[in-house]
Design goal:
The chain is 29% helix and 34% strand. The protein has helices at 48-59, 82-90, 149-159, 167-189, and strands at residues 3-11, 15-24, 27-37, 66-70, 94-98, 107-110, 116-121, 124-130, 139-145.
Amino acid sequence: MRITAGIDASYGVNRYASALATFHDGKLKSVKTDEGELSAPYVSKLFFLREAPALSRLLSGEAIDLLFVNGHGVCHPYFFGLATVIGWTHNIPTIGIASRLIRGEYTRLPSRYPDIEFIMLRCQAVGAAVRLKHFSRPMFVSPGFGVTLGEAIQEYAYWARLGKLPEPLRLAHVQARSLLRNRRRSLEMKP
């Protein structure tokens, strides 16, 4: 049985909500959520300091064969984005999926595939800008931990058949945002 999951977090002013969506052999098995107060400020290029603790709580005790993370892997100015941190600390193969590049000096190198451009950093292919045929803006795919760039692109293309995000990550994203929104409404209704 292959277990594939997606993990994401959403943020309010001083709170977060996170979700882990797990699929067994391609079928949704469970969605696990968590919420709490933020303990670290946002720092560009060091986003993992803020998000990794919240996501780690959800991953504790989970057996996962592949994890999609909403953030960069090695396609990062320090070669160590959120997907790399999560994969390395939990020993889970991870793939980073991001909608934009972090500031830094990157070179885009076209490939023989019209929908893929490789992202080069210091003469290394660290990720790919992948355009699915039914969307015009690319998503940035990079290995986090325990997968190659080729495997990351292949898994992304397989799981993102219905939209821009891989289905486990899309579902985790929707659940985290919904939990945060519902929490905000319940706090606003309290006298």
